[in-house]
Amino acid sequence: MLPGRLTVAARAARHSAIAAQIRTFKAPPATYSLDRNHRVVVVGGGAAGLSISHQLLRSGKFAPNDIAVIDPATWHDYQPGWTLVGAGLKTREQLRKPQAGLVNPKIKFYNHGVGSFSPKENFIMLGNGDKIGYEQLVVVPGISINYASIKGLPEALDATDSPVCSIYGYDTCDKVFGKIEKLRKGTALFTQPTGIIKCAGAPQKTMWLALDYWKKAGLYNPSGTSPVNITFATALRTMFGVPKYSDKLDELRKKRGVEGLFQHDLVAIDGNTATFAHPGGELKKQFDFLHVVPKMGPHEFVKKCDLANEAGFVDVDESTTRHKTFPNVWSVGDASNLPTSKTMAAITSQAPVLVRNLLQSLEGKKPDMAYDGYTSCPLVTEYGKVLLAEFKYGGVPKETFKTWFGVDQVVPRRIFYHMKKDFFPWVYEKFMVKGIWAGPKGLIK
Ligand code: UQ1
Fold it and tell me: Domain FAD/NAD(P)-binding: where (predicted)?
């Protein structure tokens, strides 16, 4: 542990303390003075916040400092790459950049957290008490990982000698590959929790890559008698949310000899014992390796604000991305209630819709572009192969390469692997964060 870096356990505790502090904030007085005013304020400098703020800037309709981005982060991580870190294919350092350096100097960057929203009065209060006014507000801060939601998890992740690891955080993804390499025999457990998580395919991507690693090392085969045996324990009923891809993945699971525990939700870790809740009661399972996906949920400052629905997600129209009650508020991405799978690929389609509709709105016109729920999951099924799931609302496949070349994307392919490993990180850095990438629709002119 580097000096000054908080442990996962300490961070979980600090998170609750900050949340408690924020809850005690008083509503601002009726008369207030703003410290700064912008035409558009974007809360969040992640994939969505950077795409949207730069697409807005490139519209040519804004002067310097008309647009502001608010984010407390020091670093910006290419999170889709963390599965590759878990497989020893990339380093986490390769995937991060200083956050401030990614924001165009013509955009005002507030390197602060948000304390509270006042959507009726069109301002935001920063964590430092400053009030920032806006004409249009974009709320895209992502979701948070709740490590403490599984008993014993923060401590197990922090303990370097424990075989418990997770690709879901910068601090934890580094431990995964070392633990995969270290396992020579025994039970390897991979989990997926209940509730909404980002990139619902990632829990099994890590499993497929580890399986392939152990297979190549001669430690795993589907016979059930090899030194390593593998279990995928998921709180869901199926391998994946879309039947077309789920059937294929379940076929792979059976063919590869992986035990499937469905509707099993990891609730506690104690030494080498994992406890699962399932409809029939409780199951305790011993493990020699455990890859955990913690539960996730909206940030406290979003959950408790007037913009959130009951579940704590920003309550926007699923087609226009405009807030259902406050017409000058918009949201997409992980923090929104858009009923689709939360991925970076989804942002490529959501951002142009939000931007177009927000610009229309600034001109007093009606939103006229619709989001169809497009999202994608480049599902790594082994080293060198990816099944490129692409679908829209209702779990209906919408495959880019099927449309163009008649290629069925349910078949894991090498070309998709290179897109996942090399092309998407490149296009993200060179184009997407700069506001010129619309995913399957290509470059934005
Ligand atoms: C994409 O554009 C993108 O972002 C840069 C991803 O990154 C994680 C993706 O996974 C996908 C699927 C896209 C969509 C682009 C094409 C060309 C299918």
Answer: 39-154
208 Cβ below 6 A of ligand 1: no
The Cα–Cα gap between 119 and 328 comes to 9
User: What average pLDDT score do residues 370-386 get?
Assistant: 98
CA–CA separation, 333 and 340 (whole Å): 9
Residue 293 has pLDDT above 70, yes or no: yes
User: Which residue spans within 14-151 are E strands per DSSP?
Assistant: 36-43, 67-70, 75-77, 96-98, 108-110, 114-118, 123-126, 131-139, 143-146
> How distant, in Å, are the alpha carbons of 50, 58, 123 from that of 38?
17, 17, 10
Atom of ligand 1 nearest to the CA of 388: 12
Contact 136, 328 (CB under 8 A): yes
Is 199 designated active site?
yes
User: How many Cα atoms are found within 13 Å in the side-chain-facing hemisphere of 348?
Assistant: 23
Contact present, 193 and 293 (Cβ < 8 Å): yes
Q: For the chain, how long is the longest CA-to-CA vector?
A: 73
* 3-state SS assignment for residue 75: strand
Give ∠ CA 50-355-421 in degrees, rounded to 5: 45
Q: Count Cα neighbours of 306 within 13 Å in the Cβ-side half-sphere.
A: 13
Residue 397, φ and ψ in degrees, nearest 5: -60, 140
Model confidence pLDDT, tens digit, residues 224-244 = 899 999 999 999 999 999 999
CB 302 within 8 A of CB 335: yes
User: What pLDDT, on a 0 to 100 scale, did the predictor assign at position 436?
Assistant: 98
For the range 299-304, what are the long-range contacts, defined as Cβ-Cβ under 8 Å and sequence gap of 24 or more? 299/141, 299/142, 299/143, 299/144, 299/335, 300/15, 300/18, 300/19, 300/22, 300/23, 300/144, 301/22, 301/113, 301/114, 301/115, 301/116, 301/117, 301/141, 302/139, 302/141, 302/335, 304/22, 304/23
Residue with tokens 């929790």: 193
Cα gap 322→301, rounded to integer Å? 19
Whether 165 is a known active-site residue: answer no
Query: What's the CA gap between 41 and 102, in Å, rounded?
Result: 16
Å from CA of 149 to ligand 1 middle: 31
